[in-house]
Design a protein that fits this description.
The protein is of the alpha+beta class. It is built from 15 helices and 13 strands. The strands form five sheets. The protein has a four-stranded mixed sheet. A three-stranded antiparallel sheet has the order 3-13-10. Helices cover 49% and strands 10% of the residues. It is globular and about 60 Å long. The longest helix has 28 residues.
Length: 442
Amino acid sequence: MNFWLDPSLFSKFFASDEHDLVFREAVEVFTQKIFGLTSHQFFPQHQKMLQELRNLLSPANIASHHAEAVACAIEEEMDRFAAEHLEHTQELELELLTQQIMFHAALRVVYGQFFRKKFGNRVFDLFFVFDDNFELAASPIPNAFLRTFSRARNELLEIFQYSLCHDSEDRLVGSRDGNMLQGAIVERALNVLTTSSTNGQSLAHLHPNLLLTILWAVQANTLQGTYWTLGYLLCPGNEEYIRDIRRLVEGQPTSGAASLSTLGRQCCTAVADRKNLLHCCAAEGIRLSAPGTEVRKAVRDFTAPNSLHVRKGELVALCPYISSMDARRVPGADPEQFNPLRYLHFEPTGVRGNSKRVVREEELAGLAFGGGKYRCPGKYLAFTEISLFLALLLAKFDIRLVPGGSETRNSALPPIDHSTLVGLKKPSGPCPIQIVARPAMC
């Protein structure tokens, strides 16, 4: 495998024409082995599906139609978590906090509130078994020997199959309310993967597998992105960012959807501006935990721009994590440090002495969401979810890391686990926190 670390090669890697490097042949074995999506049936529809989801999850659509649904789901899950876990204790695991709230909120947002109510707790347990064995399942080891993984995957597929077929209120398709996001991601994806583009045969038998793929895509990155973003904010030296976020939320108007609390409306308004501190914090947390690899396969011999010869059949990979620490690609100083202000630029307006704040979208989170035509369509949904979580949580609660050995910026968190390559990095150990409701929210 060839690893390309030189930024001058990235445009070649993500080239849309795919004359030399292709995405499908690099990942199709893993897609079939892990999710059960057969290559010849799934990939002809893949690009159309990505485009449909990008249109649905564009920044404008999220801000105008979907942010309120996301805020409502996160706030209700946050209140539920507080009632269940904070009544008798003030100390818990940071990962428990982020997983319990964000997993169930995302489940409700993507699959609908009835699905979350009926299957949420069981899907939560099964997902983490599935995710923990994800990369091992992608190895040459037959799934028959990976019994824990296979049982979790089979039960998840059974749950999705039931929800697609059962004629009741928990049926996935058609369960969303108005123009809310609930169910829309599912419906758009299933509508694309309905019939084969080559022979017209029905592909309905792949729908549960597609829903399992969406589950992993939605959860794996958002959960870790939320964990690391909040964790970095809690590190010594970053207290001013928390105060700025609280001031940002408190300064917003209280008008908005009747289905939201006053705080929920303020958070939605704050998050609508993608040039503010909340989005920059989310981007920075994701950048610092970026995936270990992005892969393509050479379909013919060619010479790369740096004169490196690549042979047909060889795999070529980028390392988004290493690239996210490369000073040539990261704006601002000290790329290994958490600094959300690195994304804020000020450009002249043409009026003497005046400037405007600018955030360059291509800089946000580096290569964590990939690039080119296969870039993750959920990038802006992830930013919105994490930003709303931060805004709501920091307004409702005072949180701090439990004092431990190291008390310096960033190093107060457990080290990153580099043993996995796919998806955002996970922590290698526990991270206890103390959390209490703020007086104004009691």
